[in-house]
Amino acid sequence: MSNAQLTLDLVGCFVFALSGGLAAVRARLDVFGVVVVATVTAIGGGALRDVLAGSTPPNALRHWPYLAVSAAAAGIVFLWHPHVSRLRRPIVVLDAAGLGVFTVTGTRVALDAGLGPSGAVALGILTGIGGGILRDVLLREIPLVFRRGEIYALASAAGAVVVVVGSRIGGTVGWQIGGAVLVFVVRILAARRHWSAPMPRLRDH
Amino acid sequence: MSNAQLTLDLVGCFVFALSGGLAAVRARLDVFGVVVVATVTAIGGGALRDVLAGSTPPNALRHWPYLAVSAAAAGIVFLWHPHVSRLRRPIVVLDAAGLGVFTVTGTRVALDAGLGPSGAVALGILTGIGGGILRDVLLREIPLVFRRGEIYALASAAGAVVVVVGSRIGGTVGWQIGGAVLVFVVRILAARRHWSAPMPRLRDH
Amino acid sequence: MSNAQLTLDLVGCFVFALSGGLAAVRARLDVFGVVVVATVTAIGGGALRDVLAGSTPPNALRHWPYLAVSAAAAGIVFLWHPHVSRLRRPIVVLDAAGLGVFTVTGTRVALDAGLGPSGAVALGILTGIGGGILRDVLLREIPLVFRRGEIYALASAAGAVVVVVGSRIGGTVGWQIGGAVLVFVVRILAARRHWSAPMPRLRDH
Q1: b or e along A73-96 (b: 16 or more beta carbons within 10 Å of the residue's beta carbon)?
Q2: How many structural domains does chain C have?
Q3: Residue C11: how many CA atoms within 13 Å on its side-chain side?
């Protein structure tokens, strides 16, 4: 992993840990609960990716900065959560960056593990959204990403497709950067303009 | 995997995806939630099996028809769920077939991974019921298979025992077919005649 | 694994299965639900440890006594739960012993898999508390270990740190025993004296 990529990966972990920690504080967990939920939100998607790709122990357990960054974010939330929760706008921006980086690394790891296009896209999306799903399951919520109808996972899907197409054509790094940027742009536009995913019609129920 | 077995495996995926998709529609998820919950219900049991058996990446990520069949079922449920939810009887029948096939493949994979009888039975049952458990956890329900007192998991257990006994005696394919048929028959009879598993007595509480 | 260690591991499984079974009875599950929740509580932490460490199939599926002990505990709870639930004090003591043993084996497995100090401590804690977290997720509760503010996970963390420090210094078995005893003593003292972990302050919310 290049230094630039590791840095982005850690930025993603930090922001995801902030979101996990804030949700844990709202659910009135104790300090240990805040640290665990923040950490699982931060590294859960990548851990699922590594376990499913057969690359164990997961990257986030092998390199200490992942746990350190997650714990630091948890500590910040624990001590100053009223201030952190007011930073809604920068958190959305950084979260979109994290989603882009996680999606691209997940797709790339899946391709390296020999998966085909559909498996690689599925694992890329799971890497991007898996941490948030685990957060919501631990806090006894139906995962937000399934409910709010926002364009979040679809942004991730678009980026994963770009990485897969790029790997077929032969380029790699450029397409990966493009995929991450696409996720970021789609996600930010969707959040700004309140684009939403379709819901099932329920009239016959 | 033989062609007949792959076909049955995909039929199981399709029906499990229908049940997952219907539950997701009832929980008012958006289109992405319906697709993910349907897919996890369909391939979750097999993915748990492969991860626990150390056979990664999971089969369902390595072969695209699994994801394609799950996504197709999710699309059908999303568009026509009032019609699909009326097909209660054929869904129970196909679900019983899926339970039988998943139980047998799970038990066989466990034996191939070197597990003994009790481990193989446990993994066979988990393969059969794991997708439904993940579906219920994602939708914030206590898993149906633990609650409704129906003979569902016990049907799976019976089939897993048959496969293990068969592997000890030396035959394999015939015993596997027998195991799957046993699961199917026990499950259908239990559903028709409302056989139920015992509940703990609560008088002293 | 030495005989003494295996014995302690099985004692831990037995007590964790009792706690899982009691929770399942309270949630009004049927006999199958009681057996599965008890078993997952007993072997779930170790299974997570083995999957994350890349040591599959998990130990508890490879050696039948783990499943046998868990099923026996589930049966005892199913038949005599009013009596079992009255044994609060011995269960707290045995549970503290189980937490100590599971923490130490988890940390040791993590070190053997090549993880560094922070990864090993994280995996040691997860081995100790993972079964209880899975129990609560299956029963649709926010994990008790995050909520009650008791010193439970912190006891586990202290023991994991001792094992890691010991492995750095060069001794192993003595430090492992010391780590398990430390978990036990801290946990018992915390339970007796109602020591609690800090909660986030919520005045600004």
Answers
A1: bbbbbbeebeebbeeeeebebbbb
A2: 1
A3: 18
Instruction: At C146, list the tokens.
Output: 């995050």
With a CB-CB cutoff of 8 Å, which residues 49-108 of chain C face chain A?
A: 51-54
ipTM over the 0.85 cut-off: yes
Cα distance from C133 to chain B (closest Cα, Å)?
13
Q: What percent of chain B has pLDDT over 70?
A: 97
**pLDDT tens across A137-165, in order?**
999 988 888 877 678 888 999 999 999 99
In a domain, B109, yes or no: yes
Residue C117 sits at the chain A interface (C-beta within 8 Å) = yes
Structural domain range at position C27: 3-193
Give domain status of residue A203, yes or no.
no
Nearest CA-CA distance, residue C166 and chain B, Å:
31
C204: distance to nearest CA of chain A, Å? 6
Amino acid at B151: I
Please check whether residue A136 lies inside any domain of the structure: yes
Size of interface A-B (CB pairs under 8 A): 91
The reply to whether B54 falls in a domain is: yes
DSSP-based three-state secondary structure for C60: helix
Residues 5-24 of A with CB under 8 A from C: 24
